[in-house]
Amino acid sequence: MKEFQNLIIEKTPKTPLIDLNQLTGDLIFSGRSIPENAAKVYEPVLNWVKEYILKARPTTNLRLELEYFNTASVLWLAKIFKVLIRIKEPDYVLIVHLYLPVDEYEEMDDFEDIIDAFGPIEDIVQGAKFSIGIKLHGLDDKGEICKETLVFI
Question: Most CB atoms closer than 10 Å: which of 6, 46, 83, 88?
Fold first, then answer.
């Protein structure tokens, strides 16, 4: 039987860096996601995630540092997210990291604004058997994190 491997898909002008690390539980999507054929990019990722949830780490960090993405990418990311919420260990945690320009971050100035913005995610995760958090990262003009907020759903 083939050993479960990390998956790295290099960044292109139209696709993000995708770095899925089974040992650390870090699932990183960074860059632009406007592929002409989203299935070609994201289907291997979806298959990897289906295998990962069988041996998930106690903490999984889904890091979405996407500066721009199209509708097809959102649909594939939603499929990936729906698989991740099927982790069966009740003591495990999935943290979704979202990186925003600091001005957008500051527009979500209280807990209620964050919950309202991510209401659709709350509908999806209702059947989850473990904890799920959303961590917002405010980025300055240099792309460095200057503010953070963590909300558990």
Answer: 83
